[in-house]
Amino acid sequence: MTRTVFCQRLQQEAEGLDFQLYPGELGARIFQHISKQAWADWQKKQTMLINEKRLNMMDGEARAYLAKEMEAYLFEGKEVDIEGYTPPSE
Prior knowledge:
Belongs to the Fe(2+)-trafficking protein family. The protein is mostly helical and 90 residues long. The chain has one domain: YggX-like (Orthogonal Bundle).
C-alpha cells in the first residue's frame, strides 16, 4: 500500500516516501510532508549543486550548506540558484 502525504513542496496530495531517507528531525519532517516526486526533484538539484560548487560531502560545512538549501527548496518553496543553469521553459 502506498502512503500519501500533503506535499509541502508541491502543495498537493502525492505519494509519500517509503521510508525516512534523511536523518534526524529534518528527515522526519521530510518523510511526513514531502512526496516522492518532490524528493526526486531535490535529488537532481542537489547533484547539480554538488557538481557546480564542487562540494566535498566529507566536509561538514558543505553538508550544512546542502541541508539549508534542501530545507529552503522543500519547505519554503525556494528555487535552488545554480549558476549557468537555465531551467527548461514549460
